[in-house]
Amino acid sequence: MASLKAETLSHYYDQHGTPLGARAFGSIRRLNQLGSHTRWLTTTLLSSAIVRAAMERFLGIDHRRPLPKPARETLMKWFARTPRAPRAGSPKVIVLADSFTSFTEPAVGQAAIELLRLAGYEVELESSVCSGRPQLSKGLLDDAKKTAGALVDRLATAAASGTRIVGWEPSCILTLGGDHHSLLPDDPRVT
């Protein structure tokens, strides 16, 4: 059903244009990243009744819906601040940092990374590229293809060498399998 929805929305947008709300939600990673760099301003704006009314009118976000606020410290800053030298022979794991855990709920990612480290893994954080799930869910198939290709470029060598790739956001992890096959059917690196 999700693939059918994405295809239908994509064809609809081709004929009628892409709504601002779909573009915004498809770019949620960039918006969260921007919000984290301008935390005070973002928090102030999200508390404004005028801004919330505009978001409801132009983006379709009900003014009564609580919105996530940028964290004081992103997951990436925390990760850089807490390096761990791996023990000799430690297996390596790449953790996908999803948009919300990276910028609004980093405690979830911190706990998962600490658990992996305690289990003896050398943890690498992949936070530069999204899985493409937000774009897919909004029918932005061309954008999702580009995003998927960029993530495959980042992960293919490690995956081919047997490095495990994990994450805590189920929809992002599931996108790596079936959706990336559909988006990049001729790319032999997508397994």
Order of helices and strands: HHHHHHEHHEHHEH
**Strand arrangement, major sheet:** 2-1-3
Instruction: Tell me the radius of gyration.
Output: 18 Å
- Share of β-strand residues: 5-15%
- Shape descriptor reads flat
Which percent range fits the helix content?
A: 55-70%
What structural class should be given to the helix and strand makeup?
A: mainly alpha
- Give the end-to-end Cα distance, rounded to a whole number of Å: 22 Å
Number of helices: 11
Task: Please mark out the parts with pLDDT under 50 across 5 or more consecutive residues, or reply none.
Answer: none
Number of strands: 3
Write down the overall mean pLDDT. Answer: 91
- In terms of quaternary structure, the protein is single chain
The biggest sheet amounts to: 3 strands, parallel
What are the main properties of this structure?
191 residues; mainly alpha; 3-stranded parallel sheet; 11 helices; 3 strands; 7% strand; flat
Overall description:
With 191 residues, the protein is mainly α. 60% of the residues lie in helices and 7% in strands. The chain is built from 11 helices and 3 strands; from the N terminus they run ααααααβααβααβα. A 3-stranded parallel beta sheet has the order 2-1-3, with helices on both faces. The model has no long low-confidence stretch (mean pLDDT 91).
